[in-house]
TrEMBL record:
Protein's UniProt name: Epoxyqueuosine reductase
Pathway membership: tRNA modification; tRNA-queuosine biosynthesis
Source organism of this protein record: Raineya orbicola
Enzyme class: oxidoreductase
GO molecular function terms attached to this record: 4 iron, 4 sulfur cluster binding; cobalamin binding; epoxyqueuosine reductase activity; metal ion binding
UniProt keyword RNA-binding present: no
Length: 311
């Protein structure tokens, strides 16, 4: 066994020990196939007000511009599927996306990924590398797909045959040559459930999402008022949306996560519709102490609640 294979096995074993569900490795190279797709998506203004999507175009496509001498992209998946789906417990209640039930995933993922990066440095040598979780111009789903962790489905989320699509993705880009995994196939087949179920028809065609119509965009990224054309289509979602994933047949394989930080606190579990409508700064701080929901601030959440309550 060569050094590349040996190091790759060592890294994957440590990733499992840290708690990641899957780990795959791809060669760090220019994303030639993705370049025209990204350009067209931006040209059609499908990013809405997410102007940052157009920034650092070259860096999104070339990992060597993020880490000098980059040779490998290590992708990891961390399951966040909850033991209890709060949206199912009380269907008439307001809903937040499952990924935001517990502590902000940026913090949890970064801690675990830095542990893995430190392990690589301690056990393999002084390498140049950086960990990325959603906070830099890295096409995480593309790299995860290239490293054999799944395929990008028609709803543009990554799907893994063993656990579905409710997971976070992170990348470590390093200047170390490793053994690379082969991509898997696309197993969506003729299924169109996500396209048919999307309340705002944001999935405009298979594998293309108009971000400016997506409920997740409308409730999180959009800073202005939610356009009237979406009134009556929010289906009680006030932060994010899980519809396209909930209807995906592959999520019948989703299993509850094993990460305590992702558990919802009792305050969130006990929130009822009237509590949401009357939410104060004090309640907001109790319900979302370290949550990703803080991104909207209380004003943004109140806007979403008011808009959803008009249905």
């Amino acid at each position: 066994m060569g050094f590349a294979e040996k190091y790759s096995q060592l890294i994957k074993q440590k990733a499992r020990e840290i708690g990641f569900d899957f780990c795959g490795i791809a060669k760090a190279e220019f994303l030639e196939k993705e370049a025209p797709r990204l350009e067209m998506w931006l040209k059609n203004n499908m990013q809405g007000e997410m102007s940052y999507m157009a920034n650092h175009f070259d860096k999104r496509l070339n990992p060597k511009l993020l880490v000098e001498g980059a040779k490998s992209v290590i992708s990891v998946l961390l399951n966040y599927f909850p033991k209890q789906d709060l949206a199912q417990t009380n269907p008439d209640n307001f809903k937040i996306s499952k990924y935001a039930y517990g502590e902000d995933y940026h913090f949890v993922m970064k801690r675990k990924m830095n542990e893995l990066l430190n392990f690589i440095r301690e056990n393999i040598g002084e390498i140049n590398g950086r960990a990325f979780v959603d906070s830099a111009p890295v096409m995480d789903k593309v790299w995860a797909e290239r490293s054999g962790l799944g395929w990008i489905g028609k709803h543009t989320n990554l799907i893994n045959r063993k656990i579905g699509s409710f997971f976070f993705i992170g990348e470590i880009i390093i200047d170390l040559e490793l053994a690379y995994d082969a991509p898997t196939g696309d197993y969506c087949g003729t299924c169109r459930r996500c396209l048919e179920a999307c309340p705002t028809e944001a999935i405009v065609s298979p594998y293309v999402v108009d971000g400016s119509k997506c409920i997740s965009y409308l409730t999180i990224e959009l800073k202005n008022e939610i356009p009237q054309e979406f009134q009556g289509k929010m289906e009680n979602w006030i932060f994010g949306c899980d519809v396209c994933q909930d209807v995906c047949p592959w999520n019948r394989f989703a299993k509850p996560h094993q990460t305590p930080e992702f558990e919802p606190n009792e305050h969130l579990k006990n929130m009822q519709k009237k509590d949401w409508l009357e939410i104060t700064e004090e309640v907001f701080a109790k319900v979302f102490p370290k949550s990703a929901v803080k991104r909207t601030k209380i004003k943004g959440l109140q806007r979403n609640i008011q808009f959803a309550s008009l249905e």
